[in-house]
Amino acid sequence: MFMPGQEPQLSKEEIRAGEIEAQQTVNTAIVAGVLLYLSPFAVDFVKKFL
Fold it and tell me: How many domains does the chain have?
């Protein structure tokens, strides 16, 4: 089970699916970081209007 060289080989489709999932995860993390950075400014902007 844990012997070197005994890892199961992934198909090209499985590798591509993993790459797509990883890219979506990175994009989501970047968008979340930007939104968290901008959220205090958005709250201040809304408070000025009310």
Answer: 1
